[in-house]
Amino acid sequence: MSELSGLFPTLAASGSVAAERAIAELRGGRPVVVSEGATRLLVFPAEILDEASAFALNSLASGRANLILSAQRLRRLGVERNGPGLIALPEIDLDRIGALLAEEDARIDAPVANPSPAEEAALDLLRLAHLLPGAVLAPLKNPAPELQEVSGCDIRGFRAKKILSLHMVGRAPAPLEGAPQSEIVVFRGGEGLRDQAAVIIGKPDLAGPVHVRLHSACLTGDLFGSLKCDCGDQLRHTARYMAENGGGVILYLDQEGRGNGLANKVRAYRLQAKGHDTYDADEILGFGLDQRRFGYAARMLDLLGVTRVRLMTNNPAKIEALRAAGLDVTDQRIQGRPTPQNIHYLATKRDRAGHFLDVDIPPPDGA
Question: Which of 195, 277, 290, 302 is flagged as catalytic?
Answer without folding.
Answer: 290
